[in-house]
Amino acid sequence: MTDASQLVSRLAERPILVIGDVMLDHFVVGAVERISPEAPVPVVRFAREEYRLGGAANVANNLRALGASVELIALAGDDPEAGRLRAELARRRIGASGLVIDTDRCTTRKTRVVTTRNQQVARIDYEVDAEASGPIEEGLVAAIERLAPGASAIILSDYLKGVVSRRAAAAAIAAGKKHGIPVTVDPKVPHTSYYAAATLITPNHHEAEAITHMRVRTDDEARAASRKFRELTACENVLVTRGEQGMWLHTPAGDTALPAEAREVSDVTGAGDTVIATMTLAMAAGASLADAARLANRAAGIVVAKFGPSTVSLTELSDR
Fold first, then answer.
1. Burial level of 160, CB count in 10 A (0-12/13-18/19+)?
2. Does 37 reside within a domain?
3. Cβ pair 216, 222 in contact under 8 A
4. Are strands 15-20 and 153-157 parallel, antiparallel or unpaired?
5. Gap between the Cα atoms of 273 and 289, Å rounded
6. What is the pLDDT of residues 5-50, one digit of tens each?
7. Residue 62 burial (CB count, 10 A)
């Protein structure tokens, strides 16, 4: 097993290509002091608002926080939110030359009304989730073929918002094979058949149960379900994230159980983004799957103690 500090020191400047559904997480924060006389709902007195990168953009942001060089392929609308998205990506030095504009959709935005105590009151989603097709899909595939040769690994971050079409997924996996680099997938159940031949898929235990029709509660169940998942998806390796029960890594060489490392849990939003970002970057740095999974497990334990989509720094990983 590689020492974690040695592995962390190898992460910086690895070029990673992220392909997936980007979104803006918009937080409207205020204090709740009374219930509305108009309906039994809390009245939130506005205090502030903030925007964070979400979805595949949060994966990219996690990679940058760990020192990686990142290019992003995604869809956005022709709207003000796309400009805000580009500005946020530029501020974090995330390459956005692969951002394809679709005039028939809006840039995905999730507006959350949150109290000053981090309690969510409501969420409003602005999105068009139709799968990319025609010239838009052609643009995504062209971007994959253009940017993949410069990457050390490829991540497919699938949020079912249109980017990860069957053809786009196939192009990404084919590019990985062509250039000899790993392709990892944060999956969604309806696209199970899209991910064949991926290097690694990282379902959570709910997704693993839905795809395999098997319970995932105990270690024995996790072992059986991960093997079945690998057979059904025709991927090479599987990492099942199990919340407070940690993770389960299944490879052709065997299985590894990873107990959870969280000291406290504030918010699990975006934890899967942190896991796949850390896991993929470690693989690109030459780590074994088991060592990469241990580092990703450590990163997940840190990020769930933070509110909203968050990142983990190299310093935090080294000090853990």
1. middle
2. no
3. yes
4. parallel
5. 17
6. 777 878 888 999 999 999 999 999 999 999 999 999 999 999 999 9
7. 28
Instruction: Measure the N-to-C terminal CA separation of the chain; round to a whole number of Å.
Output: 17
Token pair for residue 214? 């098997």
Task: Supply the angle between the helices 80-91 and 56-65 in degrees, to the nearest 10.
Answer: 20
Are 250 and 224 within 8 A, CB to CB? no
Question: Based on the structure, what is the number of domains in the chain?
Answer: 1
Residues pairing with 303 in the sheet: none
Q: In this structure, are residues 161 and 185 in contact, taking their beta carbons and an 8 Å threshold?
A: no
Does residue 165 have a pLDDT over 80? yes
**Is residue 146 assigned to a domain?**
yes
Q: In terms of C-beta density within 10 A (0-12 exposed, 13-18 middle, 19 or more buried), how is residue 189 classed? A: middle
**Distance between CA 307 and CA 30 in Å, rounded?**
15
- Gap between the Cα atoms of 238 and 228, Å rounded: 10
Q: Is residue 42 part of a domain?
A: no
CATH of the domain at 80: 3.40.1190.20
Range of the domain at 263: 4-22+54-107+129-319
Assigned domain for 30 exists: no
Query: If we measure between CA atoms, which residue out of 216, 219, 218, 221 comes closest to residue 204?
Result: 216
What are the catalytic residues? 273
Angle at 280 between CA 227 and CA 223, to 5 degrees: 15
Residue 180 φ/ψ, nearest 5 degrees: 70, 40
Helix (H, G, I), strand (E, B) or coil at 317: helix
Residues 6+ apart with CB under 8 A from 80: none
Element housing 192 (H / E): none
Six-digit token pair at 100?
Answer: 């394809």
pLDDT tens-place string over residues 198-207 = 999 999 999 9
- Assess contact for 212 and 225: CB atoms under 8 A: yes
